[in-house]
Amino acid sequence: MALIEAKGISKTYRLGDIDLKALCEVSLTIDKGEFVAIMGPSGSGKSTFMNILGCLDKPTGGKYLLEGTDVGKLDRDELAGIRNKKIGFVFQGFNLLPRTSAFENVELPLLYDGIPAKERSHKAMAAIKSVGLEGRESHHPNQLSGGQQQRVAVARALVNNAPIILADEPTGNLDTKTSAEIMELFVRLNIESKITIILVTHERDIAAYSRRVIRFLDGCIVSDERKV
Amino acid sequence: MINIPSTIKISFRALRVNKMRSALTMLGIIIGVGAVIAMLAVGTGASRQIEAQISSMGSNLLMVVPGATTSGGVRMGSGTQTTLTMADSEAIRRECPAVEETGPVLSGVAQVIYGHQNWSTGVVGTTPGMLIVRDWALSSGRPFTEQDVKSATKVCLLGQTVVDNLFGDSDPVGKIIRIKNVPFAIFGVLEKKGQSATGHDQDDTVYIPITTAQKKMFGTAFPGMVRLIMVKAKSAKDLESAEKQINDLLRQRHRIAPKQDNDFTVRNLTQMMQAAEQSTKVMTLLLGAIASVSLFVGGIGIMNIMLVSVTERTREIGIRMAIGAKTWDIRLQFIIEALTLSLIGGLIGIIIGVTGSKILSMLAGWPTIVAPLSIILAFGFSGLVGIFFGFYPAYKASLLNPIDALRYE
């Protein structure tokens, strides 16, 4: 069974009288343990597709199966549960809660999952350690560098043992050296923890870390290449 | 399933993180609650003071005063005629069923001397019935009797102010004082009553038998003349019938023809006091109305801060939804935040309102009473406003698509 199965997914935005097609019937399967890069110029629909995969947005047509479950049939709170347990997000702008310590940011998904305090603290510290930030758990985001903030975001994404990490331009705000560090972190998580990684990027050298590259143009998949 | 302890933890963290915003929101609630409590305390204090004055005057009181004289076409004020007598007072008590007791008065100002102390005070000639009319008990000694009135003995009862000025701390009962150089034996001391509604010191007085006042003190134009008659009706309900009965009785006794004007006036003191009480109630309402405006303005302030702060946190709500917050996780977080702010703000507001009204009563000398209802009202309203406007934007945000909340600028 495929981990992710998209069948003819489309997304249309209504802007006044004009219908804007952001995605036109995209079909795709991704298996467990894959490392996929989604590329394409801006406005090609790659981020829209990513948001639908992450259950942050709903498609206007088609069917999306996640571990065999038809996500389109779930209500808001069931979707929230899926985002909490199945999917970890890493955003371009980090999206950490400001004035809140790294530890508390990482702990948050566990709070929403109702994990008891002791286990919560243990898991959060383990996640912080696995991204190499031990000793900085009480720092606030504004006391951390961009690369460190993104590591906090990665720790938050994997703290609840989500099988999938969705990263939307995770290195867009970082310099080359830090970008490489973050990408190596993803590679390690993919190989060691068998976490499925799907990342959106428009940079070739970032996509080069992946083993499968899907290209979008004008809302459609134009190529799907696997490295051998 | 929603985890309440987790949500409380999340809410408290969010409050701590946004200290400035939390403080500003609370300030609105503090001012709203404090202002209303202080304002209503002033109003309630004033009306309680009037109520206390009414009860110190005696209850169910009527006053009969002589009518006005007309001298060469010039009408003088009421009481200038002297038409009331001891016999009138006695007849009112005996023949008017609605009347419980009467107290005739013949009074004047006189110098009172004890040893080398002297004091000018109001000397009231009256009967023992007066103590019943005025609901006035003795703090020591005993009252004079009908027998004293009949034989015009030289005995007296002193008000507390007179005792303070002539005797200081020593016990006056049994001592002899001189009033207009006539020696009087002190039988008793009247209980302290304090100020009357008009600010007059009710304890600055000496009671003597009315017959003694007529013969030794103030003299009379005709035998048995009295200045006025105080009347106590049997109950508040009897006041009006008592008024009518006295009217009929005195017209008959004074042989007033049907079309002729009365040569006396019956005044309903209790009704007058009730009118005064009514006006303080109006004042309390007015103060309450002003306070409500401040509460309302405070409410608008709370609303603005809440709307702005929750709206600018739409992105935060987006982040929370992306990592798994359910609809009610978000809503509860904001309800708990708003509830905490309004509870703490309300408590501080109550403290400030109560202290403020105490300070006000010390500085301005107004009596202030903090009514529990005003606390509930102010606290409840501010709290509701805070909770509603803290919750409403969060409720709207919780219905957004997570991606729209995340992208909110």
What does this molecule look like?
The complex is a heterodimer of chains A (228) and B (409). With 228 residues, chain A is an alpha/beta fold. Chain A is built from seven helices and ten strands. A six-stranded mixed β-sheet of chain A has the order 6-7-8-3-9-10, with helices on both faces. Chain A has a four-stranded antiparallel β-sheet with strand order 2-1-4-5, with helices on one face. The two termini of chain A are 22 Å apart. The two termini of chain B are 31 Å apart. Helices cover 56% and strands 19% of the residues of chain B. In chain B, the strands form two sheets. Chain B has a six-stranded mixed β-barrel. In chain B, strands 2-3 form a two-stranded antiparallel sheet. Chain B contains 13 helices and twelve strands. In chain B, helix 2 crosses helix 11 (327-364). Chain B folds into two domains: 4-53 and 275-407, no CATH class; 82-262, no CATH class. Chain B has helices spanning 4-17, 19-57, 86-95, 129-133, 146-151, 160-167, 210-217, 239-253, 269-312, 314-322, 327-364, 372-398, 402-407; strands at 61-66, 68-71, 74-78, 99-114, 117-126, 138-141, 155-158, 176-179, 182-190, 205-209, 228-233, 264-268. The chains are: A alpha/beta (228), B alpha+beta (409). At the A-B interface, helix 2 and helix 3 of A face helix 1, helix 10, helix 11 and helix 13 of B.
